[in-house]
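Supplementary Methods S3. Complex input for the iron/sulfur cluster-bound model.
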Amino acid sequence: MKGAAGSAGAGRPLCREPWQHYYILRRGILPCCHGYAPIAPMSEWATAWNGPALREIRWYLAASRLSPYCLASDNCPIVQRYHEERRRRRSPLLCAVNRLFGGLPARAYRLLKAGFHPL
Ligand code: SF4
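Predicted complex, serialized as structure tokens:
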């Protein structure tokens, strides 16, 4: 995997689940068995297949990337592999500096990346 949101390379989708089936449950529709939250209520089963949520997930996967929805699905083995690979690629020096300051640099980085502006 590469890039900010993971990549399988070779132009293949990282995962084909959202093109093959989806899950219609009482609590809502899931794009796959690892989805963390419903993308639509159960009553929208007929339109959810081509709805914006599933189209966005497919768009990312077709570009060999993980969508924000997928990245939030912690139980997905593909997402777990992506996070594991990112952890392995981290610079040992940055990890040492982060540990030295009790994880504060990493937390500050995540806040800034998420759009937190203290001023
Ligand atoms: S969460 Fe995982 S299994 Fe589900 S669509 Fe995304 S990559 Fe595929």
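Residues 14-15, 17-18, 31-32, 34-35, 57, 70, 73, 76, 78-79 surround iron/sulfur cluster (CB under 6 Å). Residues 23 and 30 are 5 Å apart (CA to CA).
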